[in-house]
Amino acid sequence: MGKVIKYEKDNIDTDVIIPGQYLKLHDYDEIAKHAMEGIDPDFHSKVQKGDFLVAGRNFGCGSSREHAPIALSQCGIKGVIAVSFARIFYRNAVDGGFLLPIEVDEETYKKIGNGDQIEVDIGTNQIKNVTKNQTYAMKPFSEIVAKIISAGGLFKYKPD
Amino acid sequence: MAKTLFEKIWDSHKVDEIEGRTLIYIDRHMVHEVTSPQAFDGLRINKRKVRRPDLTFATMDHNVPTTNRSLPIVDQISATQIKTLEKNCQEFGIPLFGLDSPYQGIVHVIGPELGITLPGTTIVCGDSHTSTHGAFGAFALGIGTSDVEHVLATQCLVLDKPKTFEIRVDGKRKNSHAVTAKDIILSIIKKIGTAGGNGTVLEYRGQAISDLSMDERMTICNMSIEGGARAGLVAPDQTTFDYLRGRKYTPKNYDDLIESWKNTLKTDDNAKFDKSFIIDASQIAPQVSWGTNPAMTADVTESVPEPAEYARGDSSQETAAKNALAYMDLKPGTPLTDIQIDRVFIGSCTNARLQDLIEAASIVKGRKVSPKVKAMVVPGSQQVKMEAEKMDLDKIFKEANFEWRESGCSMCLGMNPDILSRGERCASTSNRNFEGRQGAGGRTHLVSPIMAAAAAITGHFVDVREWV
Ligand code: SF4
């Protein structure tokens, strides 16, 4: 179970997720301290391991910097739940095994509230909102994405 | 079966199919200091080599100072990142165009300039604006650091096949000095939106595209990613072939290559695109972005829109526009030409090639930067800088009180000391007007080089069609 940190925004871009000036840092923990600094300088201290970030459409648009999923995952974010993702972010998140990029419909996005406690089951493709006692469907991962996720990233994944 | 240009490149680079995904061979891999250190670490940990150091090229651009290169780098963290790339290139045998090289520059400027970028090839780089190289009819895409490691180790990349999206720009521009490639691409993104191209490769076609020089085509392809696309490309033609002749890495059998490219590197007449979008070049005006993503753009003759009007019933767009106007400190109804600016940045892989600087200089010549504006020109590469200096463009800019810098990404992403201060408003020739992109609290308006130049002179945006 993890708590929701929600930003009601579309197009949350990589410059917001990890501003350019921190791309020179080599250490993942240092990078993580500046996650989401563009819109929420306190983000880093709010997150506990296993939490979920919820946002609107086209999450992660912009640069190809892998520092973006790394910064979030290093803070403890287990998954980002969004209406849609920019492709490079999605790919980086999955292939690096950093976090779960979970797509939901607009309705579900609206129902999940900031601070809600939720559980995500990628086996049944369900999101359980414990706080509100609701269950939502998530968009299933494609077969190959699911396999890469369960292997822990592209490097660990061995095709059958 | 009839195929699009992209499908031909894709098919000719297929190594294998793995569970519905395709293993694609990579012809060229460009590397820079910011997205590569962890990839090289990964190679070392797993005791792997770089598979094709001869197809891998490195430079430093994102983080480098654009001031005097003979002085040591003040920022120790930046210095370390730059040193790390030098060490990695040495250890793995990769050619590096470093700070002391006459070929150093923004990775997407030097690839084409050195003839590394070739038609029909696949090109990757750990930077989303790799789409720039598509101007040569290459499939060029940005990747993350894990993928950089993967390509270093295997020279291949596992990809899902993108869909094809035709962007046809018909007709001719009304004033091809004042209405630039930047205005064409901003007009396209304004219409298709920042996610309009998601999961697709754009092919730019039509009269107005054929009319463009290579520098201009690169500006267009560069911003494909701002429309959400994986890549963008233009079929090569005589303009392309002429550009690449005689460059440092242009292959020896160039004429034979041209012959084969002419026959193969084009979309077949009856090939089908998954999507199409058509725009009339004669209707395009100089553009100015007013919001915090590149689709929030308007003709220079327009005013800052009402969020509701802009959103056309889409409530989340309306909120986004409201937030954008709050961040940008703009009121609906304000004519774009009334917006006063503090800074001007002419640079970036979008608009810092020779033609961009020539166009900007033509406006600046004999004029002075408004006393309340701080303006700078950051050439895209050392080669661009040298060429420009041969033409005395540096003198024109300096006499007008522009700063004339060394090449690098500079204020495009605000990694080095070239940043906006909180609240400062900038006319920028770069590609992203995201919140904080050019420095925390900085406000970016995307424009073409001549629009930026004119804004520097007057201190506010102007319709350059009245000037040229
Ligand atoms: S100039 Fe800007 S967009 Fe281009 S590579 Fe550098 S940081 Fe990226």
Write a structural description.
The complex is a heterodimer of chains A (160) and B (468). Helices cover 29% and strands 21% of the residues of chain A. Chain A has 160 residues and is an alpha/beta fold. Chain A has one domain: Aconitase, domain 4 (Alpha-Beta Barrel). Chain A has a seven-stranded mixed sheet. The longest helix of chain A has 9 residues. Chain A is globular. The radius of gyration of chain B is 21 Å and the shape is globular. In chain B, the strands form five sheets. In chain B, strands 5-4-3-6-7 form a five-stranded parallel sheet. Bound molecules: iron/sulfur cluster. The site of iron/sulfur cluster has 14 residues of chain B, from α4.
Brief synopsis:
Chain A contains seven helices and seven strands.
SSE layout:
The complex is a heterodimer of chains A (160) and B (468).
Chain A: E1 2-6, H1 14-17, H2 28-32, H3 43-46, E2 51-55, H4 67-75, E3 77-82, H5 87-95, E4 100-103, H6 106-111, E5 117-121, E6 126-129, E7 134-137, H7 143-151
Chain B: H1 5-12, E1 14-18, E2 21-25, E3 28-31, H2 37-45, E4 56-59, H3 76-92, E5 96-97, H4 107-113, E6 122-125, E7 139-142, H5 145-154, E8 156-159, E9 163-170, H6 181-192, E10 200-205, H7 207-210, H8 214-222, E11 231-233, H9 238-244, H10 254-264, E12 275-280, E13 287-289, E14 297-299, H11 307-311, H12 315-328, E15 343-346, H13 354-364, E16 374-377, H14 382-390, H15 393-399, E17 402-404, E18 425-428, E19 443-446, H16 449-458
Parallel strand pairs in B: 3-4, 3-6, 4-5, 6-7, 9-10, 9-12, 10-11, 15-16, 15-18, 16-17, 18-19
Antiparallel strand pairs in B: 1-2, 2-8, 13-14
Helix pairs in contact in B: 2-5, 6-8, 13-16
Iron/sulfur cluster binds at residues 61-62, 106-108, 127, 129, 348-349, 409, 412-413, 430-431 of chain B.
